[in-house]
């Protein structure tokens, strides 16, 4: 770990004022790890734990406002979330461990970084270390020819194939959340789909935040009337493990046909993977196995597996089919 | 748990006695190696090679040396007072024989190439990362395929003519099984605190063998044995990885001497994957010959095991093969294959665990080929005597293990067809695997002291690696004297105590029992003699043979109501109880204590024991649940039955078995150390990427001990139990996996990518 300065911000203004050359620290469960591994080397840490951003509030339009500092466990167990957005609650509870969820925040979860083993090597992207374009643009990508079992099959580029590891984000992608940020240039909102970036030629740019911008809250739109939602995570062991494939589905079925559908996948994409292809394949179709399979096929049609992760394509399909079945079940 | 509810005296042998050191651990008062601190202590941090093979071209420590707090930088050409240890030409055993920094070559990724000692850990870490090492790197060889072996294979256990028999057998079977590199990963990291006083070293270690550690380190450090003391009072487990010294011990000791200050070094979790051992990869070809009705005609077990460049480590996969089943023709061959990896080390059930994965998987597959029940195939080929050594078994109840386990899991209702059993919308699979592990009595010396404060002290230079050894000693003393457990002090984990056994090979318990019993009985005999010879003693004139000790009190034998003649003694006398407390006798005689020593004579020097094949046996029945729709497999039940001699502490014994089965589950489904093929680095070198079972993965576990004493091993009939529990778990699980999914996994671990090949699509 490198030496750093530490500032505790009493309010949003002070936090923003100290943000230059700095990193915000919320729960610290991602950031401190990465500092120990020399992946993150901030000159200054701005502690945002005192900021009044820890509330979950109903919005006048029926939506839900989630403060950036709301802990993952509080969000998962909130009555409102359990009742109206079960997919989000289930996704949060499938992630990490109770101890980590008690620390982890909504804002921090949005910004957690990939678990690519090469990326997390202290000397990656330095001479003599593994090539990693995310760490040092132009240094190469050790995962392409390395051990890439956990890597992505969707949204990859020849510069980076790192998986986005979050569960929460997959649910938020399906819920079409909106992210509110505040920065030196003022406040703005970012639709969830535009928040995380594909690696393309610039895998080091992971999201739409500008330098010094603070996430203040995340808004969920009003729950879709009559819709059911679910999250399914498939992984190597039963708990405390990142997804090999996961799926978040929000669906409404009327008269046996799918009238509303949102599909997002985790564990397979370089960002939380909203699948418009699956949605198109399902909209208006009968809620049956054939439709689900067609949707799964469509969702993975563009997948690009590597040496060790081809199995994710099939696994993701099964994951999606089962989630669709659960979300559209009438009972 | 309160100890007053426990059975008394000799009744304490065999029941679940809570750990006497339990509260020290739960309250955090137990001090592990690196918990030791001294004024003026300095901190060492090692630097690891970032290549897997090659030469160190240069080491630039100039910046590091100038950093705050830095006291010493060590590297090739800059380490004092460390000598070579020749593994086969010395007493004792070492893990990695090459002394740290002894040349400029790199043999494996992560090898220590330098170390920094500084005033604080933070300063040492900062300086360590400022050391610049340049290499001439070559491509390391970490090829997982071990077929390129080109040396001479070692042949062992040959009987009959296996090749001829295989050629003429009506049914033959031929498959290769692979087990990956697995890393021990005990909770407690390896570490050393070294103290040098000008003449003597005191090493606070986490070692499974304080005596061996002293023997080795005295040679490595170039001082007489009596000038090295090794202390290891508590160990956060080792699983074999802490049996023998690793280089960090030499680094700390050398630095302590050079600086004349205590030095602490800790190996971090990343380093634990490269620098402190692993179970080596194995590749085992099994050929079986059988008659149509399932009698084995031949077994060929040919295997390769991976080792490092400089250390000759063999994972003896064929150790159980010669005697588990009856067959006239058999051979085992071994080939050691070198790779650019760190030195392997014994890991729980070395040899047997991977070896039985192969042999027992082959038996399961043969059964299928013969259309026979795998249990029936085993019953049919059960060995009556050890055909490898041509000796009778001291005690073998494997048949009963199989039948008991079968009953418990409900084997009768197993239908053989793949995917043929269903429950709650899931497919159920059942499988079976057998276990065995050698038994022996290894030498041990223990001393027992009866103290005038009414306490009893037991001393032995063995150690408790978390298995309950402290408690075993106390049980034995209590059984022989009736002194309550909370008045028995057990001193272990210090090489200055009487020489005790290494905690390995599941042999500690069987070794310490005879020595401790003898020591206790001798001390008591001395006590009784003294009691009868003192003129003022109430027992004066009585023959010592007519006295006994019970409840910690001396009394007349066969005397239900022994009369304590009215001799006034200390106030501690309980007038309602019989006899005289032993401490009163000591006080009467003005003794500071009565001490006696006991020894365990090894079974390999015991003419009687040498006439028998000594082994423990067991088996596991595993049940899995398979949800093909989402490729989700869970192990739902494991029933394990063991024939491990008499169990001394059922609580600690069950703990061992539960832990071992869980480790077997990890081996079956999760564990694999992956080396990057370009650098040779164990790339999943942390607990996020090297996965082990979580609580949520645990099946219903059911442990049964048959509890038949084996009096050839010792008078308690106790063998050891630490390792056997892990053997046979993997073949039971992979067979259950096959039964449910139709996928035979011959290369561990079972992964989702294997299961996706299942043709059983619907539950
Ligand atoms: C062992 C382990 C297992 C895990 N398993 C899972 C899993 O299975 N599924 C899963 O989804 N996640 C998992 N996680 C990740 C976990 O969810 C994240 O670490 C956590 O959500 C991060 O939140 P935090 O508040 O601790 O973030 P921090 O570590 O405090 O911050 C993370 C990043 O976000 C930035 N940041 C934080 N808040 C703000 C803000 N308001 N505005 C702008 N920037 C901000 C920080 O500067 C930093 O760059 C795991 C983590 C660990 C350590
Ligand atoms: S996949 Fe991305 S993060 Fe991983 S090594 Fe390649 S560039 Fe770096």
Q: Which helices and strands, and how do they pair?
A:
The complex is a heterodimer of chains A (331) and B (763).
Chain A: E1 5-8, H1 12-17, E2 22-25, H2 31-36, E3 44-47, E4 56-58, E5 64-67, H3 72-77, H4 79-84, H5 86-93, H6 98-103, H7 106-110, H8 168-175, E6 178-183, E7 186-191, H9 192-195, E8 214-220, E9 228-234, E10 245-254, E11 257-266, E12 273-274, H10 276-282, H11 289-300, H12 311-328
Parallel strand pairs in A: 1-3, 2-3
Antiparallel strand pairs in A: 4-5, 5-8, 6-7, 6-8, 9-10, 10-11, 11-12
Helix pairs in contact in A: 5-8, 10-11, 11-12
Chain B: H1 22-26, E1 42-48, E2 54-60, H2 62-65, E3 70-75, E4 105-106, E5 112-118, H3 121-129, E6 132-137, E7 154-159, H4 162-168, E8 171-179, E9 191-196, E10 201-205, H5 210-221, E11 228-231, H6 247-259, E12 263-266, H7 269-272, E13 282-290, E14 296-307, H8 321-324, E15 329-338, H9 352-369, H10 374-381, H11 398-409, E16 421-423, E17 426-438, E18 444-450, E19 456-459, H12 469-481, E20 488-491, H13 508-533, E21 547-550, E22 553-556, E23 580-581, H14 582-588, E24 594-600, E25 615-627, E26 632-643, H15 650-669, E27 700-705, H16 729-741, H17 752-755
Parallel strand pairs in B: 1-12, 10-11, 14-15, 19-20, 26-27
Antiparallel strand pairs in B: 1-5, 2-4, 2-6, 3-5, 7-15, 8-13, 9-10, 9-12, 13-14, 16-17, 17-25, 18-19, 18-24, 21-22, 22-23, 25-26
Helix pairs in contact in B: 9-16, 12-13, 15-16
The structure holds flavin-adenine dinucleotide (FAD) and iron/sulfur cluster.
Care to describe what's here?
The complex is a heterodimer of chains A (331) and B (763). By secondary structure, chain A is α+β, with helices and mostly antiparallel strands. Chain A has 12 helices and 12 strands. Among the domains of chain A are: 5-47, Uridine Diphospho-n-acetylenolpyruvylglucosamine Reductase, domain 2 (2-Layer Sandwich), CATH 3.30.43; 228-328, CO dehydrogenase flavoprotein, C-terminal domain (Enolase-like, domain 1). In chain A, the strands form 3 sheets. A 5-stranded antiparallel beta sheet of chain A has the order 4-5-8-6-7. In chain A, strands 9-10-11-12 form a 4-stranded antiparallel beta sheet, with helices on both faces. In chain A, helix 5 (86-93) runs antiparallel to helix 8 (168-175) and helix 11 (289-300) runs antiparallel to helix 12 (311-328). Chain A is globular. With 763 residues, chain B is α+β, with helices and mostly antiparallel strands. Chain B folds into 3 domains: 9-30 and 442-601, Aldehyde oxidase/xanthine dehydrogenase, molybdopterin binding domain (Aldehyde Oxidoreductase, domain 4); 39-140 and 184-272, Aldehyde oxidase/xanthine dehydrogenase, molybdopterin binding domain (Aldehyde Oxidoreductase, domain 4, 2-Layer Sandwich); 351-437 and 609-755, Aldehyde oxidase/xanthine dehydrogenase, molybdopterin binding domain (Aldehyde Oxidoreductase, domain 4, 2-Layer Sandwich). A 7-stranded mixed beta sheet of chain B has the order 3-5-1-12-9-10-11, with helices on both faces. Chain B has a 5-stranded mixed beta sheet with strand order 7-15-14-13-8, sandwiched between helices. In chain B, strand 19, helix 12 and strand 20 (488-491) form a beta-alpha-beta unit. In chain B, helix 9 runs parallel beside helix 16 (729-741), helix 12 packs parallel to helix 13 and helix 15 crosses helix 16. Chains A and B meet through helix 12 of A and loops of B. Flavin-adenine dinucleotide binds at residues 23-31, 33, 48, 68, 72, 95-96, 100, 103-105, 107-109, 111-112, 165-168, 214-215, 242 of chain A. Iron/sulfur cluster (SF4) binds at residues 114, 116, 118-119, 132-134, 141-143, 160-162, 203 of chain A.
């Amino acid at each position: 770990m490198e030496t750093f300065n530490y500032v505790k911000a009493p309010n949003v203004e002070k936090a923003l004022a100290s943000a230059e050359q700095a990193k915000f620290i919320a729960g610290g469960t991602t950031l401190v790890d990465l500092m120990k591994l020399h992946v993150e080397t901030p000159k200054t840490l701005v502690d945002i734990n005192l900021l009044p951003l820890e509330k979950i509030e109903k919005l006048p339009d029926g939506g839900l406002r989630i403060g950036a500092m709301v802990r993952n466990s509080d969000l998962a167990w909130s009555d409102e979330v359990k009742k109206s957005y079960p997919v989000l609650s289930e996704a949060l509870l499938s992630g990490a461990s109770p101890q980590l969820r008690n620390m982890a925040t909504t804002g921090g979860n949005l910004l957690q970084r990939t678990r690519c083993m090469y990326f997390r090597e202290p000397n990656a992207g330095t001479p003599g270390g593994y090539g990693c374009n995310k760490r040092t643009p132009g240094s190469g990508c050790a995962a392409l020819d390395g051990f890439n079992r956990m890597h992505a099959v969707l949204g990859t580029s020849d510069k980076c194939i790192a998986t986005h590891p979050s569960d929460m984000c997959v649910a938020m992608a399906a819920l079409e959340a909106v992210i509110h940020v505040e920065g030196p240039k003022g406040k703005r909102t970012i639709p969830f789909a535009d928040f995380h970036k594909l690696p393309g030629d610039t895998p080091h740019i992971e999201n739409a935040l500008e330098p010094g911008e603070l996430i203040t809250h995340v808004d969920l739109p009003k729950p879709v009337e009559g819709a059911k939602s679910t999250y399914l995570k498939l992984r190597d062991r039963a708990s405390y493990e990142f997804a090999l494939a996961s799926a978040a589905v929000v669906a409404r079925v009327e008269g046996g046909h799918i009238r509303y559908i949102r599909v997002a996948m985790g564990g397979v994409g370089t960002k939380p993977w909203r699948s418009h292809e699956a949605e198109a394949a399902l909209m208006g179709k009968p809620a049956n196995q054939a439709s689900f399979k067609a949707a799964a096929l469509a969702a993975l049609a563009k997948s690009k597996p590597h040496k060790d992760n081809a199995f994710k394509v099939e696994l993701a399909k099964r994951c999606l089919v089962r989630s669709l079945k659960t979300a559209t079940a009438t009972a | 748990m309160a100890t007053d509810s426990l059975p008394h005296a000799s009744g304490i042998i065999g029941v679940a006695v809570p750990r006497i050191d339990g509260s020290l651990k739960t309250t955090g008062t137990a001090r592990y190696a690196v918990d030791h601190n001294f004024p003026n202590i300095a901190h060492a941090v090692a630097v690891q090679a970032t290549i897997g093979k090659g030469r160190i071209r240069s080491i630039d420590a100039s910046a590091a040396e100038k950093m705050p707090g830095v006291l010493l930088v060590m590297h090739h050409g800059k380490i004092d007072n460390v000598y070579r240890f020749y593994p086969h030409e010395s007493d004792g055993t070492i893990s990695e024989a090459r002394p740290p920094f002894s040349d400029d070559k790199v043999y494996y990724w992560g090898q220590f190439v330098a170390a920094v000692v500084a005033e604080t850990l933070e300063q040492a870490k900062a300086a360590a990362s400022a050391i610049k090492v340049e290499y001439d790197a070559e491509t390391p060889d970490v090829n997982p395929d071990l077929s390129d072996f080109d040396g001479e294979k070692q042949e062992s256990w040959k009987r009959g003519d296996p090749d001829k028999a295989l050629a003429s057998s009506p049914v033959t079977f031929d498959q290769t099984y692979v087990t990956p590199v697995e890393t021990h990963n005990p909770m407690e990291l390896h570490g050393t605190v070294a103290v040098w006083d000008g003449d003597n070293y005191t090493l606070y270690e986490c070692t499974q063998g304080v005596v061996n550690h002293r023997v080795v380190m005295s040679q490595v450090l170039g001082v007489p044995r009596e000038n090295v003391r090794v202390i290891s009072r508590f160990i956060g487990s080792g699983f074999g990885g802490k049996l023998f010294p690793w280089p960090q011990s030499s680094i700390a000791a050398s630095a302590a001497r050079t600086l004349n200050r205590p030095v602490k070094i800790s190996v971090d979790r990343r380093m634990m994957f490269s620098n402190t051992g692993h179970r080596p990869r194995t590749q085992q070809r099994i050929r079986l010959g059988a008659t149509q009705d399932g009698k084995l005609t031949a077994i060929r077990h040919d295997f390769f095991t991976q080792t490092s460049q400089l250390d000759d480590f063999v994972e003896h996969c064929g150790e159980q093969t010669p005697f588990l089943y009856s067959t006239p023709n058999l051979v085992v061959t071994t080939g050691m294959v070198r790779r650019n990896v760190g030195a392997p080390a014994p890991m729980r059930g070395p040899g047997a665990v991977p070896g039985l994965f192969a042999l027992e998987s082959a038996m399961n597959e043969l059964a299928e080929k013969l259309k026979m029940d795998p249990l029936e195939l085993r019953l049919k080929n059960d060995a009556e005597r050890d055909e490898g050594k041509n000796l009778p078994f001291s005690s073998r109840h494997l048949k009963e293990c199989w039948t008991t386990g079968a009953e418990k899991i409900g084997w009768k209702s197993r239908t053989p067809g793949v995917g043929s059993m269903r429950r709650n919308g899931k497919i159920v699979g059942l499988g079976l695997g057998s276990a065995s592990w050698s038994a022996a009595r290894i030498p041990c010396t223990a001393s027992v002291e009866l103290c005038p404060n009414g306490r009893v002290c037991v001393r032995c230079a063995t150690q408790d690696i978390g298995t309950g050894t402290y408690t075993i000693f106390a049980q034995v003393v209590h059984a022989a004297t009736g002194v309550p457990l909370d008045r028995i002090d057990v001193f272990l984990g210090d090489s200055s105590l009487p020489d005790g056994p290494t905690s390995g090979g599941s042999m500690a318990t069987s070794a310490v029992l005879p020595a401790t019993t003898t020591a206790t009985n001798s001390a008591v005999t001395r006590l009784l003699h003294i009691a009868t010879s003192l003129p003022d003693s109430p027992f004066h004139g009585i023959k010592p043979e007519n006295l006994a000790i019970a409840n910690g009190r001396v009394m007349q034998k066969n005397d239900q109501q022994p009369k304590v003649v009215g001799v006034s003694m200390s106030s501690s006398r309980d007038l309602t109880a019989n006899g005289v407390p032993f401490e009163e006798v000591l006080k009467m005689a003005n003794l500071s204590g009565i001490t006696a020593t006991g020894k365990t004579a090894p079974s390999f020097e015991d003419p009687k024991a040498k006439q028998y094949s000594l082994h423990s046996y067991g088996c596991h029945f595993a049940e899995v649940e398979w949800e093909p729709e989402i490729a989700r497999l869970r192990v739902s039940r494991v029933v394990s039955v063991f024939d491990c001699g008499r169990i001394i502490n059922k609580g600690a014994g069950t703990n061992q078995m539960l832990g071992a089965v869980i480790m077997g589950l990890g081996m079956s489904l999760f564990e694999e150390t992956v080396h990057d093929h370009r650098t040779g680095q164990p790339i999943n070198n942390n607990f996020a990427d090297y996965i082990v079972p979580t609580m949520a993965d645990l099946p219903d576990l059911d442990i049964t001990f048959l509890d038949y004493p084996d009096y050839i091993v010792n008078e308690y009939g106790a063998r050891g139990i630490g390792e056997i529990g892990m053997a046979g778990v993997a073949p039971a699980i992979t067979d259950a996996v096959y039964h449910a999914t139709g996928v035979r996994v011959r290369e561990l671990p079972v992964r989702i990518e294997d299961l996706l090949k299942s043709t059983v699509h619907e539950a």
